[in-house]
Amino acid sequence: MSEAPTGEAIRVEPLVARILAANPSPFTYTGTQTYLVGTADLAVIDPGPDLPEHLAALEAGIAGRPVRAILCTHTHRDHSPASRPLQAATGAPIIGCAPLTIEDSGPRADAAFDRDYAADRVLADGETLSGAGWTLEAVATPGHTSNHLCFGLRESGALFTGDHVMGWSTSVVAPPDGDMGAYMASLDKLLGREDRVFYPAHGPEVTNPRRLVRGMMGHRRQREGQILRLLDQDVGAIPDMVARMYVGLDPRLAGAAGRSVLAHLIDLRNRGLASEDADTWRSVA
């Protein structure tokens, strides 16, 4: 994907157009991408941040066509806040992930939760939503957040992956809600599917989905192996692990890296491979 202009509806395949919001940042890359699915009538996936210029771009892209649903993959503030003004403008129901708000004062590498999100209908894994010539299937993919959903477009083999899988970066998995075990299981779930292309909320489309997913799983297993080796060397404090694992890391990102390490450690504890005593972790093997 070349650098797309913000606020312009770019058709990426016959049933799908993409509109980029003007909210670039270290965790949104060039910004949040909203997808319009359908031609005669539409579903809007990840309406994005509540920015007047983005809402104007969405209304221009919709161009007066009926909106059957406003779908949210999860409730971080770069994904769902525009659902409310868009609902007011179109009358469409807000459908998709469950509401979720987590109190979290730790160092984040992603957006905080949208406290005001409310769904008219929550989709369970495998449930579908249809319009004129399109069918979207909910695919539960917890891990980045516990309420994360992807949406599969049955007519074309596309999967809208939100923040679960992105081509430009690995997904943030930060406790208390981010769960590394669930994230790995959700990646494995995607390996069992036959999606043709992934459309993430940030970054370019993924044209070889299985290869990317295998690579992401390998990366996480490599990090887990690093942590297990450090525990065997009695390096059990998370800041010390971060210093050894992320050589040359921007100090401003050290706290967020520590959250990723913590997610791995919690997963290892759940599997009986690590234990925690105060702020020190130890190998159980």
Automatic annotation (TrEMBL):
CDD domains for the chain: metallo-hydrolase-like_MBL-fold
Span of domain Metallo-beta-lactamase: 31-202
Family annotation (SUPFAM superfamilies): Metallo-hydrolase/oxidoreductase
Organism domain of life: Bacteria
InterPro entries cross-referenced by the UniProt entry: LACTB2_WH, Metallo-B-lactamas, RibonucZ/Hydroxyglut_hydro, Sec-metab_biosynth-thioest, WH-like_DNA-bd_sf
Pfam families: Lactamase_B, WHD_BLACT
Name used for this protein in its record: MBL fold metallo-hydrolase
Species whose genome carries this gene: Sphingomonas plantiphila
